[in-house]
Design brief:
This is Na+-dependent transporter. InterPro entries: Na+/solute_symporter_sf. It comes from Bradyrhizobium commune. Keywords: Membrane, Transmembrane, Transmembrane helix. The structure is a single chain. The protein has about 325 residues and is mainly alpha-helical. It has one domain: Na+/H+ antiporter like fold (Up-down Bundle). About 85% of the residues lie in helices and about 0% in strands. It contains 19 helices and no strands. The longest helix has 29 residues, at about 300-330. The radius of gyration is 20 Å and the shape is globular. The mean pLDDT is about 80.
């Protein structure tokens, strides 16, 4: 390659490498930048589906195949985690909304909570788990299985708890989910075949940087009106934001405790996955035809989604170091 072209390509690669090296700090900054520049929301909103495709493609592309096969040979954990995130979570949320009367008193908020609970895990969850040093492969495998069954579970819980507030076509939703998975997997497989797993691993920082840019596109697309909502009714917006944080960390804590027997490091990885729901797919499935309160809640969930990895990284590193130390003691070297 001529030196001029090498220089031309080196500049953006250096920029992506720097961005990727910022790790969870950059992920946390994404949400504040998206909030500070509202016009980006209208500009980037048409590209939500492409952003979801890109996030999942990166996740597939970077998966550790050996670890993937190991998880598939022992499917009980993946099956249990899948059942919890696709059946347990929406069932509990739906029952709470019904018993407390939230569906009648605040239908827009109830709809938001149900759509959140019915959604599959967020496509970026494996990449965020990797940034935190957690088991990204376990997250990815569970993400794939959960996404595969969500068309059926979402339709079931919509009929049980939404009482006609939303009409979701299981066939349409299923085709969209399967199409996104198939295209992302095909693209990731092609990239791995063309460049090889070793090259992907060597270029981890710029790939991380590119992943953060895609996260920024998605966050900006759904947060375009948040600043206006805070100005119009700050008390209500702050209350919705507090609820978004409470739901996120409740799901994280409960999941981590439920799966603590597999080790807190892996349990935290599953907790991260379960607390990060793929609201983008629900927006795509409903064509964005949602009440204002539902939109506001969806937008404000971006704060815990982007801030939590930064906040939890020190805990994740301690848990990973403890797990590594335990493994080293259990399997001492022979030298």
């Amino acid at each position: 390659m001529p030196s001029g072209l090498r220089t031309l390509f080196a500049i953006p690669v250096r920029g992506l490498t720097w961005l990727g090296s910022q790790g969870t700090r950059a992920v946390a900054a994404v949400v504040f930048i998206a909030l500070a520049v509202p016009p980006l929301g209208a500009l980037l909103r048409p590209y939500v589906t492409e952003a979801i495709l890109g996030l999942l493609c990166i996740s597939f592309m970077r998966v550790d195949l050996a670890a993937l096969y190991s998880h598939l040979r022992r499917p009980a954990l993946v099956a249990t985690a899948t059942a919890w995130t696709t059946i347990g979570v929406p069932l509990i949320v739906g029952l709470i909304a019904h018993v407390t009367g939230l569906t009648d008193r605040a239908p827009g908020l109830s709809l938001a909570l149900m759509l959140q609970s019915m959604a599959s895990p967020m496509m970026a969850a494996p990449a965020l788990a990797a940034l935190m040093g957690l088991d990204a492969t376990l997250v990815l495998v569970t993400l794939v299985t959960a996404t595969a069954v969500v068309p059926f579970t979402a339709s079931l819980f919509a009929s049980l708890f939404l009482n006609g507030m939303l009409s979701i076509s299981p066939l349409t939703l299923g085709l969209k989910l399967l199409g996104i998975l198939a295209v992302s997997l095909l693209a990731a497989t092609t990239i791995r075949w063309l460049f090889g797993a070793d090259a992907i691993q060597r270029h981890k920082p710029p790939i991380d940087g590119f992943n953060i840019i895609i996260l920024f596109i998605f966050a900006s697309a759904i947060m375009g009106d948040v600043a206006h909502d805070f100005v119009a009714d700050p008390g209500f917006a702050i209350g919705i934001a507090a609820l978004a944080f409470a739901v996120y960390f409740t799901l994280l804590a409960v999941t981590t405790l439920l799966f603590r027997r597999i080790g807190y490091e892996r349990a935290l990885a599953l907790g991260l996955m379960v607390s990060q729901r793929n609201l983008g797919l629900m927006l795509a499935a409903t064509a964005g035809a949602l009440p204002p309160t539902t939109w506001l809640y969806f937008a404000l969930t971006q704060f815990p989604i982007h801030l939590a990895p930064y906040m939890l990284t020190p805990i994740a590193r301690r848990l990973t170091a403890r797990a590594d130390a335990t493994s080293a003691v259990a399997t001492p070297g022979t030298g």
